[in-house]
Amino acid sequence: MIKLLVLPPGINLVLLLFVGILWFKRRTMALFLLIVTFLLTYCLATPFVANKLLQHLESGFQPLDISDNSQLHAEAVVVLGAGRHSQAAEFSGEDAPSALGLERMLYAAHLVKQLQLPLAAAGGAVFDPEMESEASIMGRYFLEYFHIITRWQEGGSRNTWENAINSGREFGNQVSTILLVTHAWHMKRAKACFEKAGFTVIPAPTRFTSDSLPVALSFIPSASALSKSTYALHEYIGILWYRLVYF
């Protein structure tokens, strides 16, 4: 609940609420908050700002070079879940991987087939432990659409930290060096979690952010840019929170 209030558009609505409360008693303060809210909303909704926020998170990571796989020494590919499409009508009401999850799965499948490594999927049921886990959903889709068996399914986690800790328990002594697949903007936190859990991590980031728009268009606000900014801010807050709580 708190996360929904500190990230866009929740934080923007909270600021507007304060503007309304202050308008009749402290109009100068209300006007100041209104200007801040407008500027914050505009900046976060521009592709220029959204891309810069994501690219800063991605800095330090490069696409994985698998041309010489003898240098990788990995024992498994681990792909992290990224939510679900609940009760997908087009799939007979079964849960399906989210769009972000499918992006990670596509790259994980590519690595598994190119490197001939076993696959592990990590992701639980965040809101209801009785639901099918994200790992199980990914396992179904890997088998049906990529013809890949998921050897390990870690389905008890609620966040990235638990992905790492529970994966260690799932592997036992079988795996110590992994290719970790997640979005490039999520890799910094994910890598730190798995290293803290005792793994040697070879980052395998996917979906790097690119500046594909002309400069002039990058300052025109859009819903997709605001969504990107939300992912980025969620990650910055997550990194700070994990440093305070886990690391």
From TrEMBL:
InterPro entries noted in UniProt: Cell_Envelope_Assoc (IPR051599), DUF218 (IPR003848), Rossmann-like_a/b/a_fold (IPR014729)
GO CC terms: plasma membrane
Keywords tagged on the record: Membrane, Transmembrane, Transmembrane helix
Gene Ontology biological process terms from the UniProt entry: Gram-negative-bacterium-type cell wall biogenesis; peptidoglycan metabolic process
Residue ranges constituting the DUF218 domain according to the UniProt record: 75-238
Transmembrane segment boundaries: 6-24, 31-50
Alphabetical list of CDD domains matching this protein: YdcF-like
Alphabetical list of PANTHER family matching this protein: ENVELOPE BIOGENESIS FACTOR ELYC, INNER MEMBRANE PROTEIN, PROBABLE PERMEASE
Protein name in UniProt: YdcF family protein
Protein species of origin: Spartinivicinus marinus
Source organism phylogeny: Bacteria, Pseudomonadati, Pseudomonadota, Gammaproteobacteria, Oceanospirillales
